[in-house]
Amino acid sequence: MKPLTSKEVESQLEALDNWSFENDQIKKEFSFENFKEAMAFMVQVGFEAEDLGHHPNWSNVYNSVSIQLNTHDADNKVTNKDIQLAKAIDKIYKKN
Questions:
Q1: CATH no. for residue 78?
Q2: pLDDT in tens, 9-26
Q3: Sign of the CA dihedral 56, 86, 33, 36?
Q4: Residue 1 lies in a domain
């Protein structure tokens, strides 16, 4: 999978909801009412990630989830796989 250039990543971020790009990854913080909602979100994202065959780097502390995306098979750079997963994550978040 071919990595996107910085310009290509920045252009793709315009279609995403508040994702940022730094250190060769796109990332976003998500907040929820409580731990249960945060975990439910992570489960939904986990199923989507598995379907796409692309898995996030993430962490959870109580009601917040931090997600970082890059592609290990592309030298840990951002690829279209990351953009596709970020779009799916945004859709899941909006449903919750």
A1: 3.30.1360.20
A2: 999 999 999 999 999 999
A3: negative
A4: no
